[in-house]
Batch of 2 targets.
Target 1
Amino acid sequence: MKICFAASSGGHLEQLMMLFPLMNKHDSFILTERTQYNFNSKNLKAYDVTQINRREKTFIIKLFILIIESFVIFFKEKPDAVISTGALATVPICLLAKLFRKKLIFIESFSKISSPTITGRIMYRVADLFLIQWEELKKFYPNAIYGGGIY
């Protein structure tokens, strides 16, 4: 089974890398944002995509580029599943997974204790498995599975 592990840079990526033992057991690759932040991919194949911010004036242009980049990576790698901790830069690869009937697992951010993320609200509707790290989020995601923290 080939798995795409997708996360924005920073804290989202740090959370995702806590799943390294799972990454190591499967044919895996990482998709994250292209930033000045260098991370240790631990010798796993990693792809950098355009960093995007919904408040930027160039949002639509960057979103279009991000969709194309995600499409190319998706068809090059052909993952059987996508596991994501968010955020916005991961939405295209997650939606591609659903469009092509691959499994999608979304893990809501550890930093969100009392309110949902925008990406979480989107992914809750489409994910095959939606995990929360805080029981308090059940009021926003009643069908989510509480898995505890991944730290």
Target 2
Amino acid sequence: MRSFSGFLAIAVAFAALLIQRPALAQSPEGWRTATGDNYCDISFHRDPTMIFMIRDFGGAEYSLSGEALRMARTGRSVSGDIRIIAGSGEMLLFGSEEAMREQAQATRKYPIDLFLTALGDADEFTLQTEAGAEQIPLAGFAAAAEEFNRCSADRAGLRGPRAPILTAFDGMQQLRAEASRQRLLSGTLGYILTIDAQGKPTDCELTRKFRRRATEIALCRPLLETTTFEPALDAEANRIAGVFEMEINFDMWMTPQGYLEAEDR
């Protein structure tokens, strides 16, 4: 299972010197991708200058570099929040630990994933830092982002074949309340979910059998209604139906605030 805590373990390093761009036969201005043995790059250039680049190392680690992220007088990397503004939307690509945690919890996405999806319908975005604002057009971005995503998926082992990946579960309070009504105050309960090719749960089976079918339906409902997935992939990275197994540990106290671990009881 993809841990939500992984969304918060974001290591962002600023390059003191610009990374030399690869010698590619491309237009003087525009978006480019480049790959290496241990990285994937997506960058925007105004020849001969690289204005902005994200380098994805995998494992929620990435670096930012480019002239837009350097102070004009000192040439050093900026510090503090780096904001992306596209239309009415705004996000942090780098900021305080607290701000990044709140953003990750709200979106269930890594900042780099949020950046790529937030720009889908925009014509340009503003890169806002203490060095000032830089307007960056998005012509050609979609093709570069697709290649960048393909590289990142290969590095992360997210291409096929693989099982469905849980991306969000917002029904813990609902599940807690139902488990309390069913007096499931200890032990574990396993769930087997069938996930269709669009990432939607379509069926739920419990590893423990109950006398009443209504009990199984009630315990499955929060998972069927409040979970989202990246679908399973076959060997050619085509989306297919798959099965996802998980286990909920009820060996903890249930309170109006949620679960309490043993040491906090």
